[in-house]
Amino acid sequence: KQEVTQIPAALSVPEGENLVLNCSFTDSAIYNLQWFRQDPGKGLTSLLLIQSSQREQTSGRLNASLDKSSGRSTLYIAASQPGDSATYLCAVGRGSQGNLIFGKGTKLSVKP
Amino acid sequence: KAGVTQTPRYLIKTRGQQVTLSCSPISGHRSVSWYQQTPGQGLQFLFEYFSETQRNKGNFPGRFSGRQFSNSRSEMNVSTLELGDSALYLCASSLDRRQYFGPGTRLTVT
User: Fold this and answer.
1) pLDDT by residue (tens digit) across A24-37?
2) Residue B24 forms beta bridges with which residues?
3) What is the secondary structure of A16-36 as a DSSP string?
4) Cβ-contact B91, B23 below 8 angstroms
5) For residue A97, what pLDDT is reported?
6) Burial profile A74-110: b = 16 or more Cβ within 10 angstroms, e = fewer
């Protein structure tokens, strides 16, 4: 059974710091991995999608890497800003089916 | 393009009642998935529909059901509501395996 873990559960950093969020999964047979952002009481915003054949994806200040063999993904946020404060969720997709298995998320707080 | 829309945004129901939630996917997306989010369990997959057929189902009791219409709009129904059904219900549509989520329906069962 696939399990997705995100550590730490919460993180507080000063503005401008570079930071890394971690995601691990137990079954390396994944189809893809997505990182999402969720603001309080809101839906999820897709940040980055990494296909199983890819090693990383970049969008602006965000960079996500994937190491299937070790069951790990990281989300790197450069020059963090208070507007980055949110919960970040990673989710793995399996096979041709559409469902995602989510981690519990990392709640990020960026202090001005 | 308009994003995924969900109605209603908030609902308060009483134990034992039933509820129907609606989701309109992004135009052209044929896959719709539903998830339940609670503080304790996080996000859990309910079911996925593709071209009006349920393609995949999570580990939820039969009180949770859904359907998809020919225009790809989807509904989910929860019968005989329990207090534990209080949650944020999220719908996502997908074209190329990248899932786009709606704002969710916040269901409170009293």
Assistant:
1) 999 988 989 999 99
2) B5
3) T--EEEEEEES----SEEEEE
4) yes
5) 62
6) bbebeebeeebbbbbbbbbbbeebbbbbbbbbbbbeb
Report the residue of chain B nearest A100, measured CA to CA: B45
Decide if B42 and A103 are in contact by the 8 Å CB cutoff: yes
CA distance linking residue B93 with residue B28, whole number of Å:
10
Tell me, what's the pLDDT at A1?
85
A46 → closest Cβ in B43, B56, B99: B99
CB atoms within 10 A of CB A14: 9
Which band of pLDDT confidence, cut at 50, 70 and 90, is reported for residue A94? confident
Q: DSSP assignment, residue B16?
A: T
| CB atoms near residue A51 (< 10 Å) | 16
Q: Are the C-beta atoms of residues B53 and B47 closer than 8 Å to each other?
A: no
Q: Residue range A75-94: average pLDDT?
A: 96
Tokens of residue B2, six digits: 């308009």
> Of B20, B22, B42, which is closest to residue B87 (Cα–Cα)?
B42
